[in-house]
Amino acid sequence: MIRVLAIDDEEDVAELIKIQLESRGGFVVKTESDASxxxxxxxxxxxxxxxLDIMMPKMDGSEVAADFMNDREFKRTPLxxxxxxxxxxxxxxxSVSSAKRTYLPKPINWTELVDAIQATKHPATLV
Length: 127
Fold this sequence. Notes:
alpha/beta; 5 helices; 5 strands; 36% helix
């Protein structure tokens, strides 16, 4: 089972991510809609990968990511950014993804999200 923490200020989106991933099997998903609580939730849950919305009101995704990157426990935990700021074509035509961070456009393509999560277990498969 891959443990996924989904952080999105829109509770409906976070819950949809949970439902979509868990219905496919192989995933246990915890959601967090308050970005300021993300690190605490991660400590309680122990995720293998973190899904992170970029545009959030109190703390944006880059601030939350910085918290994780500066935390000894989570600095090696892969991050997958979910954002309406990039298109699928922009992601495919650039080198914005690495073994540490992947960017996927919203609306979410569930197959691509599953593939990206699974690729965190095998970083060489990332684009």
